[in-house]
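Look over this today:
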Amino acid sequence: MVSVNVYERYYKAECLYNGVMRYGAKVIMLYESEEGAYSYTAQLIFFPHRDPEDYAVSYDALFTETLMEGKGRRSKKKEAELLKNLEECCDRLAAQAGGTVFWSEPLTDERRG
């Protein structure tokens, strides 16, 4: 199986989950491929971020949504279209968890894979 983080970035956020207040969110768009089938998935992970150096991600507050599945290969054109809607998708995931991602307050530079 091939797995690639197409997009990854940390943002300021707020979410009370499992009794723990979280002030950061990790946003990922993941591409996975196996035997000719692929999928793109949005992942939103809230983590405590108690100080500027705290990036310890706890995976109990992980929320995902499949963006696209099919047969074929990785496509930069598909990825560009999916990235346009990533914030909207993650806002839905955050709302389900009772949290908010502050898109205008990134904690890191974005990473592309």
In short: The mean pLDDT is 95.
